[in-house]
Design brief:
By secondary structure, the protein is α+β, with helices and mostly antiparallel strands. Helices cover 35% and strands 20% of the residues. The strands form three sheets. It has an eight-stranded mixed β-sheet with strand order 2-6-7-12-11-10-8-9, sandwiched between helices. Strand 10 (281-288) and strand 11 (297-303) form a beta hairpin.
Length: 441
């Protein structure tokens, strides 16, 4: 039986017709020059996470659909409209992961990570999938970096969950970002706020957009996240959560802000800030970068003290953060912080076929086994064409394997910077490596 693909969305008009030479809409190719920039960013991510004591976790690309339905929430846009869901050959409903937190929580439970020292600090990096309208920095397959801290309700961890991504942004050279933070309460105090929102919005239901009218019946807090201009004046006068927070939530939020002050992290308290997932409790935050326009968030997170229990575990407090890597790269590009890859081969090996090509291949292999990038011709081109290829690659040297030089056990080394050249002994390749300024791994 062939697996059947189903989607929790309506197919848009104007979707391009599939061709073998066209990638699916909402996906992107990362070409070699760009991949160098991605690798540099990944290395910065790993260094910062290591400094904060996080270990990397890698979860499956797909999970049981119910994990996201229960974890993210049935009334969220992701579950209602954006998940890529399919039925496999065993009639199981599976979903390509649309976010990273629920899979990490599942792995935390399944692998009994909570039985060891607490809190457990985990970070992840990988592809996610959502059926959204593609736009700048937002794709249907996108890469997300995030981290989760499970096992403690210490407000300091909320503050550190903001400090870590800021360390990453600064390590990348990014500045000009702003932190917005809020508390959305807990199951004890949120029902009263929910009732207040219903009382406020219900008389104005007809003035709200269709999405807000639907949310009003199921999850009125989500109205505060609406971006429709016509809804903004109504939302601006809505009750704020600060009036309804219980004593514990008020105290927790106050401590989070105190820690941010101690860490010298600037922030703005935004009483309208909510997150798009139902699992959030207490602290929520976003890091914004205005140069990106309307979609200005370059990272967000918060506390989700009830998610582990919702997924079948014991009550376990937790807090986390996530950022779309494409959006972060856009922010870096906006500040001209992304340079082109400057990597180039140490040497280009020029040969004339026959025995000279055999010797060039031997020398290339010797260099490469020592982690040194060299290139050579595979197209049987003229010496002039090979020199042009070396120039295009910005090779620092060319090694010319002529027949006469080869007969003498030598190779002609030319410095592409100053044009100086000299003969080197092919039986002393380690000395040649040293002379070219390369270091063995």
């Amino acid at each position: 039986m062939v697996a059947t693909i189903t989607r929790f969305f309506t197919i848009e008009e104007g979707e391009p017709t599939m061709t073998l030479a066209t990638r699916p809409r909402g996906t992107n190719d990362i070409l070699p020059a760009d991949a160098e920039l991605w690798l540099e960013l990944e290395e910065k991510i790993r260094r910062v996470c290591h400094a904060y004591g996080f270990g990397e976790i890698r979860t499956p690309i797909f999970e049981h659909t119910e994990l996201f339905q229960r974890g993210i929430g049935d009334t969220t846009d992701i579950v209602e409209k954006e998940m890529y869901t399919f039925t496999d050959r065993g009639e199981r409903s599976l979903t390509l992961r649309p976010e990273g937190t629920a899979p990490v929580v599942r792995a935390f439970l399944e692998n009994k990570l909570g039985s060891g020292p607490l809190p457990v600090k985990l970070y992840y990096y990988g592809p996610m999938f959502r059926y959204e309208r593609p736009q700048s920095g937002r794709y249907r397959q996108f890469t997300q970096f995030g981290f989760e801290i499970l096992g403690s309700d210490d407000p300091l961890l909320d503050a550190e969950s903001i400090a870590l991504p800021l360390e990453l942004y600064e390590a990348c050279g990014l500045d000009g970002f702003e932190v917005e933070i809020n508390s959305i309460g807990c199951p004890e105090c949120r029902p009263a706020y929910r009732a207040a929102l219903v009382d406020y919005f219900e008389p104005q239901r007809d003035k709200l957009c269709q999405s807000c009218q639907s949310r009003l019946d199921r999850n009125p807090l989500r109205l505060l996240d609406c971006k429709v201009k016509g809804c903004q004046p109504i939302i601006a006068s809505a009750p704020t959560i600060s009036e309804y927070l219980c004593a514990d939530c008020t105290d927790h939020f106050s401590q989070v802000l105190s820690y941010l002050d101690v860490l010298e992290i600037s922030y703005n308290v935004n009483p309208r800030l909510v997150r798009g997932f139902d699992y959030y409790t207490r602290t929520v935050f976003e890091v914004k970068y205005a140069a990106l326009g309307a979609q200005d968030a370059i990272g967000a997170g918060g506390r989700y003290d009830g998610l582990v229990e919702e997924c079948g575990g014991q009550p376990t407090p937790a807090v986390g953060f996530a950022v779309g890597v494409e959006r972060l790269l856009l922010a870096l590009k906006a500040q001209d912080k992304l340079g082109e890859s400057k990597k180039s081969p140490l040497a280009y090996l020029i040969h004339f076929g026959g025995e000279t090509k055999l010797e060039a291949a031997r020398v290339a292999h010797y260099f490469r086994k020592r982690g040194i990038w060299v290139e050579m011709d595979y197209m049987d081109r003229s010496m002039r064409a090979q020199m042009k290829a070396a120039n295009r690659l910005a090779s620092r040297y060319v090694l010319i394997f002529g027949e006469e030089e080869l007969a003498a056990g030598q190779v002609l080394v030319r410095n592409m910077g100053d044009g100086q050249q000299e003969l080197k002994d092919l039986q002393q390749l380690d000395e040649l490596i040293t002379a070219l300024g390369a270091c063995e791994k």
